[in-house]
Specification:
single chain; alpha+beta; four-stranded antiparallel sheet; 34% helix
Length: 105
C-alpha cells in the first residue's frame, strides 16, 4: 500500500502501529491484507497508510476514539493480534494520537 490516505478536515484520530517482524511469514501477508479490508468496513474508518523497510509502520485513521475501541474489539482483529504476538512480531508499539491539523499538496 503506497497511497496517501484521503482524510477529512480535522479533528480525527491516528492509530500508529510500529513493528519489527520475526523471521516467520506464515500467513502474515494474507492476514495483513485481510485486516485492511476488514478495517475499511468498520464504522468510523477513514483510511490507512503502511510502509515496511525493515521497520514497519502502519497508520490508520479514525473518526473517533469510540470507532478505534470497536475496531480493537473486533473478533477477527483480535485473532490477528494474537497471531502477531505469537509469531509475527519481535517487537511493536501502538500509539493513538488526535490529529488537529493536516495540510499538503
Amino acid at each position: 500500500m503506497s497511497d496517501i490516505a484521503r482524510t477529512p478536515e480535522p479533528p480525527y484520530y491516528a492509530v500508529i502501529f510500529t513493528n519489527q517482524r520475526t523471521e516467520s511469514d506464515d500467513g502474515y501477508g494474507a492476514m495483513a491484507d485481510r485486516m485492511v479490508e476488514l478495517a475499511a468496513d468498520q464504522p468510523g474508518f477513514l483510511g490507512v497508510e503502511s510502509v515496511r523497510d525493515g521497520l514497519g509502520i502502519t497508520v490508520s485513521y479514525w473518526k473517533s476514539l469510540e470507532a478505534i475501541k470497536h475496531w480493537k474489539q473486533n473478533a477477527e482483529h483480535k485473532q490477528a493480534q494474537r497471531l502477531g504476538h505469537e509469531k509475527w512480531y519481535a517487537a511493536f508499539k501502538l500509539r493513538i494520537a488526535k490529529v488537529e491539523r493536516d495540510y499538503g499538496i
